[in-house]
Design goal:
The protein is an alpha+beta fold and 850 residues long. Helix content is 39%, strand content 24%. β7 (162-168) and β8 (174-181) form a beta hairpin. The protein starts with 13 loop residues before the first strand and ends with a helix. 33% of the residues are buried.
């Protein structure tokens, strides 16, 4: 801020500031002790004294005690020293006229600005109009309707020839999105104004001082006078002044537009300047302070409405993101692979982001979908993205400005939104938007908005405001702040899932490697045993008296028996199996003619699946070792196995070998010995004790009660199986599958077809399922319903099927822990993922063949 005179003069000499106020009002500033320190030169009109004579005097020479009291009270509302307070109808000592006073704090100064007062009844009317307008706007269906109602209301209240709602765009330019204009004037609706029309500094002032009036562009303003001592202490900052004269450049700008007076009301959303309500008039025009304050209140309420509407849209978007995330997380829980998760996520978010296509880049794989560049171009884009600092979401609606070669494929991808999902070298999910060739009408040529003026670097405003049309090429629809917010949420979700799946894959790989090592060792051991056993079979079968044909027949029969027994041992079985049957199978397979020398006494014990698998390995080792080295290795020895229940409810298995060759402890411990000694304690929580007595091996195994049950029938007889059908259930011809995941739905369709279904209908949602139920030409034989269908559930489908008497079952990623409503609580619920065996068992339970 510059001064008209040198500050080295004495303190008593007043100085003139280049700062001015508009002449329809008057400015007075006082220190904290209420001594007048600044005054506008035209204040003589209301004080009777020149501004020079008022400097240094107490404020009560002009302000009555009541006025000072009211102003002091209003100052309490200005903390933390921002904003403006208004006192209406203040009478001064020097005049009988009433004034409306706006008060704000500037540094250590209390700044008061006086304007001729408005009638009190008009103030009430203005506030009533604002309340009515806000009520009407709140019920409007869209923001565009809100914009139209806004400009019409403001023009009606303030009386300007033209009122525009001016919204700032993503590139800082502004566009007229609504307009109310006097008949006969050229419309400005949809015109675009360059960002340079409202510089950054001016935008900051619009946030700090949300209402601005220029009553007359020909008003040169009244200079502000202050004491030199006060000026030295600090320049009077007029940023919060409502009367402050504006820059001569802005005045010339308005004159070039043919505007004689103007007013603006700031629209501030979430602390940012969203836009302006801009008012123009062809002649000088000054709405009263009450009218302007009413318009300011309306602008603040409009800001809140826009903020609430945008917030509601963000909330709706967040809800969709949550639903998509929930569905994807469910797929992950079902065991989906990383790349499948990325593809599913990109496909789900493409519609939400209004993208035309996407690319998933993971490791060395690239998958393209929809409107997207070729693989080579995507690799080039990723290489450029890798050169950006940080690891953040990047967006542009002009890919050619980021990658000049992108003009070659601008028709399919002019905008890109990239989401990094790994560390460098990065993997990405890229969303693309097509080129949107459009015509933009500028209020003058945006490429030449200003020219250098006569004072060098000081700029003068452009003089032409004729509509200038530009054809925009190689640009897409811009990505909104909400799009970027959604992308950030998607990135966070993907990083969590990808990292989780990667860690899980690493753990599974380690466990698989350990299992593979164990499997190789066990396989090696098994192969050696089987080869030895086959050799023994050949030796024992070759009696010397049989013909070649008979020899082959016997050998083939025994080898087949060995194969069946080996499959029976290793195959996972999830039903209780008789220990007696296990021992009989082992003896029959491996001992051949010596099986009668295995004597089993005690109750018939049914082993649980885990115990059965473990004991099969133990008994196999015990019997094969006895056959090779123990009591069963000669012609007279035998094995006695006694079963009993201990007082603690455990199963005791006593193994005793009698009549065989002398036993010597093994010189080395092999894999078989490890299985015998450690399987029961380690896997079943029991006990094992092996004694290599010279008279015969003694072994004791004890299994806790949860590993077995007793067959009340005593000694088990082999059950005669009556095969009623290949599958064990009534044939299904027409099946309904309700599944919102396409891949799972296709797999279910294939399973039912493999089980004999002629027609399988897959419905992705409740609506489609109910339509299929009502419109099918023949009733369904069976239905499998996925419980969770996005935001819906399949319970209503189940209720309708129950009304029609169609058998059905639920399926869920939560397994049988999924909660069912009371009226469907008796329905069978199987867990995901399922396979052919699970569906076959399900059908056999629900539709058993009679």
């Amino acid at each position: 801020m510059a001064y008209d005179v040198d500050l080295t003069n004495c303190d008593a000499e007043p100085i003139h500031l280049l700062g001015r106020v508009q002449k329809f009002g008057y400015l007075l500033a006082v220190d904290s002790d209420w001594t007048i320190s600044w005054a506008s030169e035209n204040i003589v009109e209301i004080s009777g004294e020149a501004a020079i004579d008022l400097l240094g005097q107490p404020a009560d020479v002009l302000l009555p005690r009541e006025a000072i009291h009211s102003i002091r009270n209003r100052l309490q509302f200005l903390r933390p020293k921002r904003g403006v307070e208004v006192i209406y109808g203040v009478e001064l000592k020097t005049t009988h006229s009433a004034f409306d006073v706006s008060v704000h704090i500037s540094g250590g100064q209390i700044v008061m600005e006086f304007e001729p007062a408005d009638a009190l009844d008009s103030m009430s009317t203005d506030l009533t109009n604002v309340r009515t307008a806000i009520d009407q706007i709140a019920d409007l269906p869209s923001l565009q309707a809100v914009y139209k109602h806004t400009v019409r209301f403001v023009r009606m209240v303030l009386g300007f020839d033209r009122v525009m709602l001016y919204q700032f765009q993503h590139d800082a330019s502004g566009q007229v999105v609504a307009e109310a204009v006097r008949y006969g004037k050229d419309p400005f609706l949809n015109l675009r104004y360059p960002a340079s029309d409202i510089p950054k500094q001016a935008r900051a002032l619009y946030v700090e001082n949300p209402i601005r009036l220029i009553a007359d562009v020909d008003d040169e303003g009244a200079p502000i006078i202050g004491r030199a001592s006060t000026a030295e202490a600090g320049v009077l900052d007029l940023s919060g002044s409502r009367l402050r004269s504006v820059s001569p450049i802005h005045i010339e700008y308005l004159r070039n537009m043919g505007v004689a007076s103007s007013m603006s009301i700031s629209i501030v959303v979430n602390g940012q300047l969203w836009g302006l309500i801009a008012c123009h008039h062809d002649t000088p025009h000054r709405p009263s302070m009450s009218q302007r304050n009413s318009a300011l209140l309306f602008g603040q309420m409009l800001s809140l409405i826009i903020q609430m509407r945008e917030g509601a849209e963000e909330k709706a978007s967040d809800t969709l993101v949550f639903e998509i995330t929930t569905r994807i997380t469910r797929d992950v829980a079902a065991g989906a692979a990383v790349f499948d998760v990325l593809l599913s996520t990109a496909g789900s978010f493409m519609d939400l982001l209004k993208a035309d296509g996407y690319a998933v880049v993971h490791d060395d794989a690239i998958v393209l979908q929809g409107s997207a560049p070729c693989t080579v171009d995507v690799q080039h884009i990723c290489a450029l993205l890798n050169g950006l600092p940080g690891n953040k979401v990047f967006e542009t609606d002009s890919l050619v400005s980021f990658m000049p070669d992108a003009g070659a494929f601008a028709d399919v991808a002019s905008g890109v939104l990239s989401i990094p999902i790994s560390r460098s070298p990065r993997d990405y999910v890229l969303f693309f938007r097509n080129e949107q060739v459009r015509q933009v009408k500028w209020a003058g040529d945006p490429r030449k908005p200003v020219t250098l003026g006569p004072n060098g670097a000081r700029l003068t405003p452009r003089k032409s405001f004729e509509a200038w049309q530009e054809t925009v090429l190689c640009r897409s629809i811009p990505w909104s702040a909400r799009d970027v917010r959604t992308a950030v949420q998607m990135r966070v979700m993907l990083l969590e899932i990808v990292l989780s799946l990667t860690d899980e894959a690493r753990r599974e790989k380690k466990v698989a490697a350990e299992r593979q090592e164990l499997l190789i060792a066990e396989l090696n051991h098994r192969v050696r045993n089987i080869l030895g056993l086959v050799r023994g079979l050949i030796s024992q079968t070759n009696s010397g008296s049989d013909t070649t044909t008979e020899f082959v027949r016997k050998l083939d029969s025994r080898v087949q028996s060995l194969a069946r027994a080996h499959d029976h041992i290793t195959r996972q079985n999830w039903s209780a199996v008789s220990l007696r049957q296990l021992l009989e199978t082992e003896a029959e397979t491996y001992l051949i003619d010596r099986r009668e020398r295995v004597i089993l006494t005690g109750p018939n014990v049914m082993l649980e699946p885990q115990a059965y698998s473990s004991m099969a390995l133990v008994m196999h080792e015990m019997l094969t070792n006895s056959a090779k080295y123990g009591a069963l290795s000669d012609k007279s020895g035998r094995v006695e196995i006694g079963l009993s229940i201990t007082d603690a409810g455990s199963l005791a298995i006593n193994w005793r070998e009698v009549g065989g060759p002398a036993v010597t402890p093994p010189k080395r411990r092999g894999f078989g010995s490890t299985i015998v000694e450690r399987t029961v304690p380690f896997e079943l929580g029991g006990e094992t004790n092996i004694v290599y007595d010279p008279a015969g091996v003694l072994a004791y195994f004890e299994l806790p009660g949860h590993n077995f049950s007793l067959d009340p029938g005593g000694v088990e007889e082999r059950r005669k199986e009556t095969v009623v059908s290949p599958n064990g259930f009534e044939p299904v011809s027409c099946v309904l599958v309700v599944e919102d995941n396409l891949i799972i739905g296709l797999e279910a369709e294939e399973i039912f077809q493999s089980l004999g279904a002629a027609e399988v209908v897959v419905a992705p949602n409740v609506k489609g399922a109910l339509q299929a139920i009502e419109s099918t030409s023949r009733p369904f034989d069976f239905a499998l319903l996925d419980i969770n269908l996005g935001a819906d559930t399949s319970f209503d489908i189940g209720r309708r099927l129950r009304e029609l008497g169609v058998p059905f079952a639920f399926a869920s990623g939560y397994g049988d822990s999924a909660r069912l409503p009371d009226d469907l609580s008796d329905t069978i619920n199987i867990g995901k993922p399922y396979d052919t065996d699970a569906i076959r068992s399900l059908l056999a339970e629900i539709r058993p063949q009679s």
